Amino acid sequence: MGGGLHGRWTAVTRAWRGLGRAQLALLMGGFLVNVGTFAVYPYLAVLLRERLDAGMAQVGVVLGAATLLQFASAPFTAAFAERVGLKRALSLATCLYCLGALTYLGGADRPALMVLGLFLSCGAGALYSPAYRGYLVHAATDEQRPRLVSAGSAAGQLGIACGPVVGALFLHEPGRLFAVTTALYALLALGHAALRPEEPVRPALSGPAVEPFSRVLHGLARVPFAATVLTHYLFMQFYQYLSVYAEGRLSTAVYGLAMTGYSLGLAVLQPLVARRVGRAGHPAAMAIGFPAMAVGMAAFATGHAAGVACGAAAMSVGTAVLFLKNDLEALALSERSATVTFGQQRLAVGVGALLSGVIGGAVYGMFERADALGAFWLTVAAQCVLLPPLALVAGRLVRGRRTAPRSAPRPG
Q: Where does the Major facilitator superfamily (MFS) profile domain start and stop, copy by copy (predicted)?
C-alpha cells in the first residue's frame, strides 16, 4: 500500500515537472487570483450590508445579479478572449480585478462604488476563467488534457482554500484588505503581461481561429452540459446552505476547517485521479461521483462535527471526479474551440447555481419551517442518486446530431 501511494505521488510530481514554464506561471496566477477573490467574496454580504445600510434581501439581489452576470456572460467573454488573444484577455482580466479592488477601496463612504467594484470583479472573473483554462490546454493533446485541466482546477481550489483565511485576518479592517488585494492584482497584471502569447495551433485541435459572437451557444456538448448543470445544482446546495445549517450546531472553527478541508481535498485528489478519470467513460465517472456526493449529503444530516467532516471528505471525492470529467467530456465532444467550450461550461455552472438558489432555497425553507433540516440533506442525497440517469437521458434526447471527438476515442 505504501509503495502504491508513493508511486502515485511520484507520478503526480513528475506530471507537474513536465509542465512548461508558461503553464506553471499561469497556475501560480490562477492560485493567487483566487486567493484575492476569496479573501473578499465570503465576507461581501457583511460588507455590503454595512456600506449599503440595506437588508439581506436587497444584498441578496445585488449578489445574485452580479453572479448571474459572471456566469451568463462566460460564453461571450470566451469568444472575446479568442478574438483578442488569450494572453491579452488574461492581462485585461487582471487589470479589471485591480480596478475592482481599487473601487472597493474607494467605496468606504460611497455605496455605489462598492456595488460597481462587485460588478467589475465579476466581469473580470467572467473573462479570466475561460481564458485561463483555454491557455492551459492550448495545443494540448487528449492525453495531456486530464493533467492540465486537473492542475488548473487544483491551483484554483488551493486559492479558494487560502483566500478566506487571508480575508479573516483583515475582516475588521476592510480598507487594508482592499489595499492588499489591489497590490496583489497589480502584480498579477504585470506577471500576466509577461506571459508568452499562445502559438497558433492546427485547426483540428483548436477549432476556428476566431469564434463569432453570434455562435457562442452553438455546438454545445449537450450531455456534459446537462451533467454540469446537475452537478452544480447539487453541489451548490452544500456550498450555500451548509453554513446556515451549521449555525448553532457547529463552532465557526469546525465549519471553517471542514470547508477548507474540502477545498484542499479536491486540490489534492484531482491530480491523483486525473489519468484514470480521463480514461473512464462519462457514465462510469458519474456512477462514482454522484453516489459519493450522496454519501456526503447524507452525512450532513447527522448535524455532528464528525458527520460534517466525513461529508466534506465524500464531497471532495465526488466533485473531484465530476468537475474534471464533465469538462474533459465537453472538450472531447464539442466541435468548438477549447476556450469557447469552457465558456459554455461556465454557463452550465451558472444555470446549476441558479437552480440551486431557486429550488434548493425553497426546499430548505420548507424543511426549516417543519423543523426537520436533517431530512433536507437526505432529500438532496436522494436526488444525487435519482437525477443523474435522467440528466443523461435528457441530454441525449435533445442533443440533435451527434458531434464526434476531434481525435481518436479514449479507451474505456
A: 22-412
